[in-house]
Amino acid sequence: MSTVAVTDDTFDAEVKNSDIPVVVDFWAEWCGPCKQIGPALEELSTEMEGKIKVAKVDVDQNPNTAAALGVRGIPALFIFKDGQVISNRAGAAPKAALKGWIEDSI
């Protein structure tokens, strides 16, 4: 499964109402560190298929959800489980660190 593009309008349906935990990546096209972690998140979405969903929210096109969660810098990553935030982190990290954070959180 590849990452899912989520908008302000689809956030509740794709993230809060998901049957499995969702890693939400708040990013923007102009953000260098966001582009660095993109491929790692794509790989993790495939490797951990069925265990997690990876959703990407472009903060430039969808500012409301980012503002509601208090996102001040990007990349910002949140893990939602049963509609609630269970963990979050900011900044880029290597794939192994991201995977460890996800596994420890879910």
UniProtKB/TrEMBL annotation:
<comment type="similarity">
    <text>Belongs to the thioredoxin family.</text>
</comment>
<feature type="domain" description="Thioredoxin">
    <location>
        <begin position="1"/>
        <end position="106"/>
    </location>
</feature>
<dbReference type="InterPro" id="IPR013766">
    <property type="entry name" value="Thioredoxin_domain"/>
</dbReference>
<keyword id="KW-0249">Electron transport</keyword>
<dbReference type="GO" id="GO:0045454">
    <property type="term" value="P:cell redox homeostasis"/>
</dbReference>
<keyword id="KW-1015">Disulfide bond</keyword>
<feature type="active site" description="Nucleophile">
    <location>
        <position position="34"/>
    </location>
</feature>
<feature type="disulfide bond" description="Redox-active">
    <location>
        <begin position="31"/>
        <end position="34"/>
    </location>
</feature>
<feature type="site" description="Deprotonates C-terminal active site Cys">
    <location>
        <position position="25"/>
    </location>
</feature>
<dbReference type="Pfam" id="PF00085">
    <property type="entry name" value="Thioredoxin"/>
</dbReference>
<feature type="active site" description="Nucleophile">
    <location>
        <position position="31"/>
    </location>
</feature>
<dbReference type="GO" id="GO:0015035">
    <property type="term" value="F:protein-disulfide reductase activity"/>
</dbReference>
<feature type="site" description="Contributes to redox potential value">
    <location>
        <position position="32"/>
    </location>
</feature>
<dbReference type="InterPro" id="IPR017937">
    <property type="entry name" value="Thioredoxin_CS"/>
</dbReference>
<feature type="site" description="Contributes to redox potential value">
    <location>
        <position position="33"/>
    </location>
</feature>
<dbReference type="InterPro" id="IPR036249">
    <property type="entry name" value="Thioredoxin-like_sf"/>
</dbReference>
<dbReference type="GO" id="GO:0005829">
    <property type="term" value="C:cytosol"/>
</dbReference>
<keyword id="KW-0676">Redox-active center</keyword>
<dbReference type="InterPro" id="IPR005746">
    <property type="entry name" value="Thioredoxin"/>
</dbReference>
<protein>
    <recommendedName>
        <fullName>Thioredoxin</fullName>
    </recommendedName>
</protein>
<keyword id="KW-0813">Transport</keyword>
